[in-house]
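User: Hi! I'm working on a homework problem where we have to compare a predicted structure to a textbook description. Could you give me the structure for the chain below?
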Amino acid sequence: MKRTIFAAFVLIASALPVEAACTDPAEPKVNWRRCYFDGADLTKIDLTGAELRDTTFSRAVLKDATLAEADAYRARFVSAVLTGAKLDRARLIEADFTRSELDGASLREADLRNAKLVGASLKRADFTGAKLGGTDFRNADLTGATWVDGRKVCAENSVGQCN
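Assistant: Happy to help. Predicted structure tokens:
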């Protein structure tokens, strides 16, 4: 009887959502949901598969960071530096990258539906296989970016759209 009760407790406890610990060290699969990292230097950080929903990285430096397969739904990267970052297969639905630097970033197969990239620098970024429905590229610099089909490279002075 005691074993059955204990087993039931373990089963229920393991099904409960894990609370985010914003002070946890940066590592793959970390749960940083609803955390604030405004202005933080997170250069070369590895957040592969991390839970970053509703997290704020405004003015943060994520140069050469890895956020592949991260869930960053509605995350805010306003004026952040993500040059050379790897965001492959990341869930970036409704994320805000307004005025961010994403030069040379890899966004292969990323889900950017309804994301804001207003005024962002996306020079030489790779959007191969990305989902871009409703993405706002207003005033974004897409010069040299590889487009969704993996073949088209955006022309010089492609602002707001890939020419």
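For your comparison, note the following. The chain has one helix and no strands. Residues 5-18 have pLDDT under 50 and may be disordered. Good luck with the assignment!
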